[in-house]
Amino acid sequence: AHEGILRRQSARESAARTYARALPIVPVRARGLTIEGADGSRYLDCLSGAGTLALGHNHPVVLEAIRKVLDSGAPLHVLDLATPVKDAFTTELFRTLPPGFADHARVQFCGPTGTDAVEAALKLARAATGRTGVVAFSGAYHGMTAGALEASGGASDVRVARLPYPQDYRCPFGVGGDRGAELAARWTESLLDDPKSGVPTPAGVIVEPVQGEGGVIPARDDWMRRMRDITSARSIPLIVDEVQTGVGRTGAFWAVEHSGITPDVMVLSKAIGGSLPLAVVVYRDDLDVWEPSAHAGTFRGNQLAMAAGAATLAYVRENRLAERAAHLGARMLAQLRGLAADFPCVGDVRGRGLMIGVELVDPVEPPESAAEAAEAAEGGAGRPRPAAPDLAVAVQRECLRRGLIVELGGRHSSVVRLLPPLTITDEQANAVLDRLSDAVASVVA
Ligand code: PMP
């Protein structure tokens, strides 16, 4: 069955297939971190539905919540009508939101993908401000429709200015650290303030607190606070895309809690649906300028997703899984940094909580200029080596051979990403690290 299914799907499915190319598996059963294939093979799943499965596959509380709705005879499809299931989800969602934000917030249910919620957020900011342009950051990923795609670095007719996103390893200014973040913040300020910059005051600034698809790049908290100050001072709505970072993933329930900022708009999806499709935008109530139907969608009322989502949010909150993600993530990062010390092809290890990236680079040191040698001698940032997407693909393949599913990301697809469920045990985390280390060792052997 396994081979036949793979063959038929690759013959019949579109060339736009992505995950299925690198992961030729046929999942038939799954529980927690583990997936079982049609051929009896077993895998530890650190892709987790692209970061969706905060509680892993088929968590009992999620299944129970879904069964309860099924057994109750409630309608499964309710457009945007009010229901007890929706009321319970909204109540739990507002309970988890940062208090300063939740007190004056409205939620809008969107077509069930993160992309649609991004689209709604961008349209809302444009409607609320009467302005058109949007500021996004280099390396961002916000989705695949025209507006979201443009904010991700694609092409559409929505005008988006892309400004530098600070990072240590491939700092756009070559300095990293506080100084790199400061330079990135000043760049944003000067572009917004210079009438000749071609960036008239935008309708909104959209930012990921940790760039996920962009290669797991956590923003510094002080830079996030600067973005808050810069946008507040100019009355520009700050849209925080927490589609991937939300629900405990980064070691706080919402990643904005790390910097303590209060956004104007939050875009939420993935884990909020407890593995079923659900996406919402939450925003300051005075931005709610929509006319009815200004942003609609048939599938806004998925009751199973709301029930699964409410159960997930409550479980993460009650069991303090964000704290668990912070502790375990710090330990995994520390161990992976040991890997970087052992293998020159591991250029960087970074992340926050259980959102972890390992960047593969060319293991051969390029010839160093005299100036760089002097800088390195003074403890400077040094020059990152070229990204090595081929090595990353090889590591992913070797991981799969060892029963570990990982995804790649980053601008050059050179970053191995780990997004395990927040319920992963210590022993399972050790098994993940062992298999990844073996895979890296095998590709450089
Ligand atoms: N924003 C971010 C930060 C994401 O990571 C993603 C998906 N990876 C999206 C938006 C788009 O979500 P979806 O794929 O559900 O449309």
Automatic annotation (TrEMBL):
PROSITE patterns: AA_TRANSFER_CLASS_3. Signal peptide: none annotated. The keyword ATP-binding does not apply. It holds the Pfam family Aminotran_3. The keyword NADP does not apply. Its EC number is 2.6.1.76. Keywords: Aminotransferase, Pyridoxal phosphate, Transferase. Pathway: Amine and polyamine biosynthesis; ectoine biosynthesis; L-ectoine from L-aspartate 4-semialdehyde: step 1/3. Residues 368-387 are annotated as: Disordered. Coiled coil: none annotated. Its cofactor is pyridoxal 5'-phosphate. Belongs to the class-III pyridoxal-phosphate-dependent aminotransferase family. This is Diaminobutyrate--2-oxoglutarate transaminase. It comes from Streptomyces xiangluensis. The lineage of its organism: Bacteria, Bacillati, Actinomycetota, Actinomycetes, Kitasatosporales.
